[in-house]
Each structure stands twice: as C-alpha cells, then as structure tokens.
Amino acid sequence: IFLAFVLILAGLIIFHRIKNGSDIKYLTEKGYYNPVSIGDCSLNVVKFGNENSDRKIVVLSGMGSGLSVDMRPMTKELEDDYMFIFIGRAGWDGSDDKKDERSVETIVEEYRSALKASGLEGPYTLMAHSMGGVYASYWVSKYPEEIDAFINIDGTYVEPITEEEMSGSSSGNLLLKAAVNLGIGDILLPVLLSNDSNLPKDEWRIYCIFQLMSISSDAVAKEGSAINRNRNATWNSLVETDVPKLYISSRDGDLTDAVDRK
To answer: pLDDT tens for residues 62-106?
Structure first.
C-alpha cells in the first residue's frame, strides 16, 4: 500500500511538472505569456490591440485571475483602435511569486516598472475592476501626470479603516500549495470552475491555467490579507487632480453614497 501511494504521488508530481511546461508553451503561443523583468521578479505583461495607438489602456484586475481572457469578448471589439495592456501582479496570472508584504505602494511601483521595462511610455488610461480600483486611485493621486483618464468598473472604494479592521492573515495557503504541486489542482480545478462567460474552448483552457497558477501563491495570500490596509493607505493618499474619472457601478447605492467621499 505504501509503495502504491509513493508511486501515485510521484506520478502526480511528474504529471504536474510536465503539464506546467505544456501550459506555459500554450500561453506563449496564444499571446498570453510575456514575462518582463522588473529587477527582483518578472511580471506577465499581456498586450492586445493596436500597438500604434496613442491610447494605452492599462487594465488593473481585482482579486481574481484570468481577467485578460475574461474581458476579451469586449476588448476584441475595440482592439483596432486601442492597445490593451494586462499586467499580472506578483503571484497572479503567470507572474513570479513573491513573499514580501503587498502594500499598495509596492504594487503600483511594480506596475510602473513593468510598463517601463516593456517600453510602454505614458500617458496611460487606467481601467480598473474590483480591488484594481484601489491601486488605480493611488496611482492617479501619486502620479497624475502619467494618467490621461481613469475608468473604474465596479471598483473597490477606498475609505478610512479602523486599526482593528486592518488586521489580516495570509495563513492557510499550505494546503493549496500541496494540491497544486501534487497535480490535484490540474485535475479538479477545470471541473470545479464555472465558465460563466461562455469562453471558447481555447480561451477557457487559458483561464483555467491562470487560475491554477495563482491560487497557491504567497503573494496572492499576502495581498488578500492587506486589502483593508491598502484601502486605508490609498484613502490617506488621495488628492484632487485634473484626471478625468468615470465610475461604473452595478451595485445599488454605490454612486449616491460616493458623493460624501473624497
């Protein structure tokens, strides 16, 4: 029994490593994998659309993977006129993992470094979703000269957070790491995920690969534990700028409640 267990375990590990190499190759062939070094790690910078366009739309995702795939049904209709740039934060969507604390300051500086390392000069249009709205809000306040517009699509609002609410933990990641490294995630994840966007078969595979790459990373866990700290830090950094801002919300009350915000 023990020998059979060891053989199954070894087989799963070998399967995962072979599949991981195959997945990276597939992402590269489809244009979804372009790691760019920013010094201490590489971030995956995915570009679609008109590279000669003077409108560079930098998409900042929330606490979820695969937005570059999930948004393609929309961006494909606009790619003749605009360039869309999706940057995977550390630990997300094919970017290298990191163990440091994921502060909003660090994350925005890594975004900026990845764009410069890719030879993509500003100004940029930031299009943010969910938690990406926090990072975009900080970016606009800190470096308004780099931004020509900010589009917030159901973004997380920034607000003052009490000290008690700012505590968070990045523990509980060990089981996810084990599941991924043992190849269990390769088998179960595509079954458990729901293709709500009705993506074609090839893009659904890419979406699943990005999910698998991200779920067990240390950076994702640490970023999750820092959400409230980053919302508070961004609130404290807000300044009035001339950058045009468009807020789109599908949640009742959000836009009227925002009147009292900065």
So the answer is: 999 999 999 988 899 999 999 999 999 999 999 999 999 999 999
3-state secondary structure the chain: CHHHHHHHHHHHHHHHHHHHHHHHHHHHHCCCCCEEECCCCEEEEEEEECCCCCCEEEEECCCCCCHHHHCHHHHCCCCCCCEEEEECCCCCCCCCCCCCCCCHHHHHHHHHHHHHHCCCCCCEEEEEEECHHHHHHHHHHHCHHHEEEEEEEEECCCCCCCCCCCCCCCCCCHHHHHHHHCCHHHHHHHHHCCCCCCCCHHHHHHHHHHHHHHCCCHHHHHHHHCHHHHHHHHHHHCCCCCCCEEEECCCCCHHHHHHHCC
Which residue's entry shows tokens 């926090």? Answer: 134
Is beta strand 42-49 parallel, antiparallel or unpaired with respect to 35-37? Answer: antiparallel
What are the pLDDT digits (tens) for 129-138? 999 999 999 9
CB 149 within 8 A of CB 244: yes
Rounded-to-integer distance, Cα 157 and Cα 152, Å = 10
Both tokens of 211, joined, read 């999910």
